[in-house]
Structure formats: C-alpha cells, structure tokens
Amino acid sequence: GDIRKLQSLDDDEVFAFAKQIAAPYELVRQTKQLGRLPVVNFAAGGVATPADAALMMQLGCDGVFVGSGVFKSGDPARRARAIVQAVTHYNDSHVLAEVSCGLGEAMVGINLNDEKVERYAERSE
C-alpha cells in the first residue's frame, strides 16, 4: 500500500509524506527508490568468509553484520577488511578472489577434545 503510493509521489510530496509519518526523509526517499524497505540482514552465524558475505549481498541483502566470523578468525583485522571489500564489490569475481587469498584460518570451531564438550556429551548418554 504505502510503498506503492510513495513511488508515485514527487520529491516535495515525498518530503511531506516523510514528515507526516515522522520518518527520516532519507529513509523514505531510499524506500521510494528501492520500491521496498531497506532491510539489513543481521546474520547470527555462518558468515565467516568474503564469499559468504558476497553471497548474502547477491541474495538481495542491503548489508551484512558479521561478529564472531571475524573476531574468532586467525587474523581478524585482515578478514574484516576483506569482508568489507566483498560486500562492496560482491559482483566482481576478481576482487572477491583477490581479497579471499591469504586470510589465514577462518572462524575457529569447537574443539571436540575439549574437556567441557566431553562432559556435555556424557550427559546425553
């Protein structure tokens, strides 16, 4: 309803509409331009490589939030820069290949030999 209506408005009407609904003008303008609400995907796991982040963008996300995928990696600063580049250049395979090289170990998983893990495993037996 409102998004379709918004797309038929001129710039002055968009400004008035933003004021009427008490929303930031830039957000309303961007919504008109996209024809949908700009929703950022907050990935709660599984995004640990530049390829993962690029795929999220190719699937239609406006941005990607990455936490442990960066901070639990071998070189967090380098991986963070690579993921930012992957999100920016998600359709450029040359850039993706370049930023994906030499990043070191991806997100470290659970060590199954860990004493805590063994205790949890014993509980289910």
TrEMBL record:
Instruction: Give the record's GO biological process terms.
Output: amino acid metabolic process; pyridoxal phosphate biosynthetic process; pyridoxine biosynthetic process
Which PROSITE patterns does the annotation name? PDXS_SNZ_1 (PS01235), PDXS_SNZ_2 (PS51129)
Which pathway features in its UniProt record? Cofactor biosynthesis; pyridoxal 5'-phosphate biosynthesis
Which Gene Ontology molecular function entries are recorded, alphabetically?
pyridoxal 5'-phosphate synthase (glutamine hydrolysing) activity
Specify the PdxS/SNZ N-terminal domain's residue ranges: 2-44
Q: Which reaction does it catalyse?
A: aldehydo-D-ribose 5-phosphate + D-glyceraldehyde 3-phosphate + L-glutamine = pyridoxal 5'-phosphate + L-glutamate + phosphate + 3 H2O + H(+)
Q: Describe the task this protein carries out.
A: Catalyzes the formation of pyridoxal 5'-phosphate from ribose 5-phosphate (RBP), glyceraldehyde 3-phosphate (G3P) and ammonia. The ammonia is provided by PDX2. Can also use ribulose 5-phosphate and dihydroxyacetone phosphate as substrates, resulting from enzyme-catalyzed isomerization of RBP and G3P, respectively. Also plays an indirect role in resistance to singlet oxygen-generating photosensitizers.
Q: What is this protein called?
A: pyridoxal 5'-phosphate synthase (glutamine hydrolyzing)
Q: Which organism is it from?
A: Pinus taeda
What lineage is this protein's organism placed in? Eukaryota, Viridiplantae, Streptophyta, Embryophyta, Tracheophyta
